[in-house]
Amino acid sequence: MFTSVSQYLWAQKSQRYERLTTASGLSQSTISKIIQDKKGFLWFATSDGLNRYDGNNFLVFRSDPSDSTTLSGSDIFTMCEDDEGNMWAGTRNAGLNKIDLSTGKVYRFSQGPNGEDFSSMTVSSILNLGNHRVMVSATGLGLLVYDTRENKLIAKETDVKNPMMADVVRIFKHSKGSIWLGTRTGLLISRLGPKSYLPFKLAENNNTPDFRVRVINEAANGDILVGTEGQGLFRFNSQNQHFTRVFYHAQNPLSRQNIVTSLTKDAYRNLWIGTDNGVYVMNKEDFSSYYQISSNPDPDLGISSFSVTSLFTDSNLNTWVGTWEAGLNIAFYQKPRFSILRYKPNTLQGLLSNKVTAIAASKTDPDGVWIGLNVGLSYFNYKTGKIDHIVNNAGVNKLNSLADFDVTLMQSDKKGNLWIGVWGHGLINLTPQRKQMAYPYLMGNRAANLTAMNLMGDKLLLGTAGLGVIEFDIPSKKYRVPYPMLGPRNFSAKNISSLLVEANKRIWIGTTGFGLYIYHLDKHELTHIDKNGTSNGIRYNNISKIFQDRNKRIWVLSNGGGLHLYLGEGKGFRNFTVADGLASNTLRSMMEDKQGNLWISTNGGISKMNPKTFKFVNFDELDGLQGKEFLANAYSQNDKDWLFFGGANGLNFIKADSLRMKMDIPPIYLTGLKIFNKPVKVGEPNSPLEKDILQTKHLVLQPDQTVFSLDFVALEYQRPKNNRYAYILEGFDKDWNEVGTQRTATYTNLNPGDYIFKVKATNSDGVWGEKPFELKITVLPPWYRTWWAYGLYAMLFFGTVFGFMREVRIREAFKTDLRMKEIEKERIRELEQVKTHFFTNISHELRTPLTLIISPLEKYFLNNPQANKEQKSRILAIYQNAQKLLHLINQLLDLSKIEAGKHQPVIAQHDLILQMNGIIHGFEAYALQKQIKLKWLSPVESLFVYYDADIIEKCITNLLSNAFKHTPEDGTIAVKMELIKQFSNKSEEIQMVKIHVMDTGKGIDKNHLPHIFNRFYQVPDSIGRVGTGVGLSLCKELMDLHLGKIQVNSELGKGSDFNIEFPVNIHHYDASWIQTSVNVSYPEPSLLKKSDEMEIEQEKQILMVVDDHAEMRLFISDIFKNRFQIIEAERGEEALEMALKFIPDVVITDWMMPGMSGVNLCRALRQNPKTNHIPLLILTSKSSHESQIEGMQAGADDFVSKPFNADILEIRVNKLLETKERMRKNWQKQMIQQSLSEGKAPIYEDPFLQKATQLVIDNLSDAEFEVDDLEKGLDMSKMQLYRKLKNLTSLAGNEFIRSIRLQQAKLLLENSAYNISEIAYQVGFNDPAYFTRAFKKQYGKSPKSFIQQMQDEKS
Fold first, then answer.
1. Is the pTM for the entire model greater than 0.70?
2. Which of 271, 350, 561, 610 is an S-S bond match for 282, by CB 3.0 to 4.6 Å?
């Protein structure tokens, strides 16, 4: 059923041609020329720009038609590096350019020696002549020689008049120094000197296009090699001046092979000839022995295009092939480390399929290996290259012919048997005679497919796709389940991916998706290990392979979680990932070579691990791998230490000890600078670069450029991704930073100073270079830390010292004057304080007699019906003048407060219109009396805004008073309001209010207008103006305080317009001025009384009057004499003594008195428990809020300002007594309703009641405990106790004691089993009958009825 077909591989060594295209970063795919500069960078001339390549990235120079600093054209035909390291670029039809690589500046050469226009010339060739000169062939013009330092044409060496030179298209310099020119007419010309030439014809009939010279090079013996457009390759012997055609397809003259475009010699000195038909590689320079490199899509078989345009061999002996519109191809000198075998279409010389699924090295043939594929089985002799295919029915090699022979597992034994696991077919045994025996297992059951195999003597341990672990006994050829715990019970639907038997002690089982299992053979125990998120656990549950090395270490490979090294029982695993150097975290297989190195196939190539250092070396396609992806069971190793790896694209094999490390280290350079992550170029504003970073030796950074990045690269072209880097900034870093393949170093916020940046790299084999690249970096300090700044600081310091000393002398000179000025200021301050104190006291002294004048007038005379008309008129005059005097006193006091800084606005929200209506209404009667028209123009009906109502009222009242004073009869006074609005948040808001008070009086002369707001200023009497000069000054001071202003417009004979303007938005005012309410809340009243020795009726209420003015005491006593017993005191000390003696019901006291003030009296009464219940009322001329707060804090319950209305005073006293009466009733209610505890007093707010009640309870059973005992216990006289209890409870002493006894009796009736008589005795009643009567009086029912009621409620 199986047949064998044998073929030999092609004996020629294979070569892979890596490719670079536009996808790699190349600017365009047609490569006209390739060179390498002195530093090692490769340059490619393309049809769309000049490219510099460093192995990783391309830097492209192009033309920008809108930017004259770029190349003149992008179609680059040729290029050359001059002695200064700058690049010259010749274009097609766009002239010549020079790129100064140190600055990035581009020079365009657009004029000839006589001013000719060279901007459109085609430059076909450029040669560095040395001695700072370059020679340029301009097609159709001639030869141009330029001085590379001066950027000038050298006229004596330039030849643009010779027609022969106009045809020159190639220039070549011989190793001996001679210059050779090739023309488009088939001439090879020797340049003997400036404008001196010796031409040679390639052939007699050479003036045809196909003789055009395309390339000139030098043969090994010094002969000149000349490639032509269609006549092949010629060899010229300069000694005999003879041409020989050495490479030409004579049978087909039109063959593209005859178009020779380029020449180079590879590392083995083989001559490469680039043609339009691919590359021909000579054996050395034997033109009869060669092979062709043709075009092929597969890089292993050929280059990307037949049309070769350029060839070049670099300093690392790699050969580069440029093509027409197909990019670059590279034949690397270092051959692939891995050999490869692939599927080859239409031939049996390769694999049956590219997908290698299983491998088994032969145990009987040291050079043979079995290769399992998804379509069959092959046997490969890697030494001879012979391959035998085992195919079904000996059919042709087609991918689908063996679709039912998918090899998944293979194991060979020492007898030559090959055990094969075939998907869906179980085991197949291939004998040494190539006969096969099939051993199916549960055919048709997908869970029975074999997924893992381990040879144990004469048994095969097998893993399945869902039935656990089974065993195949080779002698008996039977399957069985050897370990029940490893059967379907624990592994149903679990795919087993790997099996490892560890010294016949444990079986390690890897699964797909379910982690790791360990079966202990001796204890028959199964341990499960899966991903648990810990640092020493496995990272992924997909296990692909389990391997044990020679040191008995267990390695677990996962499909996504990297590599795990088992550390021992209870210690977990050590994990290795890409971050540690692995090629991929998806691992497939592991083998150990004879040196102990571990080889790991992955999904990203192959990794080789040093078992001691745990360092990795990675291999990829550039090393000859079939691809990055390898398969899990496709690996094997033979006794000669050959390693075999299979993947999705073929087979790789390598001798483990054949690897040789490269020791040459690529040069490393800086390629870029970024500041704050933005690339920096030479010549940009604020750029620290004077030269390109590649040529910069010392980088100087400004103070604001301390965040920067440096890009670097090692010029490795074959395997640049394997280069690893390390850098250090000396002066900042303490050690080298090893950053792997990262090619950027970033530093932030460096301190000013000098640093040295060093960077080094490894080659592609990981060998570190010893000599790093160095760049000196200086970070400049900010200007204030420079040397000249420190010099300036020194000058400033010494100047300051000098100035200080001079200042000291000046101060000493003026010391006396300063003292005198301070003394004068202190005197002024004292005078101000004296003046303020005077105003305060005089206002008080004046208000008291005014009160005695105004209050009796209001009470007894103004509304006296018995007074005749004349008496009423006289009394009214007295009253009005007293009010005027009071108004004047108030104004003086307000000015005093403002001047002392004690007047603070009280800002609250008011209805300004309502207030204005009230003020105007107050003047309407006056207007009728004086026959003056009073007009009030209101803009709105209501206006709620923020302002100080008191200030505004005073200002408007003053202005109206002045207006009425100076407006004659039949005149007019008008009040008008203006609203000043501002547009905000899509609506209008009122910001300011302006109120005009206008009159038709005589007006004011303009000479007096600037002074009318000065204090006490009066317009002369001749003008008709009289007064005190205080009103307008007060208005001005008040409006300034209110953040407003007052203005006047007046004209003699026409009248005046006074207006005030003030803010009404809450945001204009200080937060401390704002009050949510302008009403002051007063606590409950309190009072004191004074009198000579007199008898006091206990039942009648007592009022104490305290005032140092006898007339005031008499007046107040007269108001209250019909209702109260009046006691009087002249001083606070006397009042305190009398209050303790008589315990008055109310105390009315003046604020300011000799000795103890009214405030201190209030404080003393509140602090004494005998008097702390008495309502207190203060009479004062201090109407400020601060004064009211001070009084409240001292204990006052209410205030009445002088002068006061007698009716108002009576009402205030009545209200205080009503409050006290409510408190008494509240206590009585508590006595009846409050819940009590036996032996404990009720809880009262008043501490006196609390103490008195507890004292009674403590003596409850003492029937002899009476009022005298209560007086002693409370340390009070009979009068004090009586009046105190009466004030608080309306009860006398005996009544109070009885009330407490009954209260406790009620508690006992509710909660005890005593009878009524026993309870009566317990609460201090000697007579139960009296107890019953008293109880019924207090609670409305007898004790017996009370008990019966309780029993009824309970039932």
1. no
2. 271
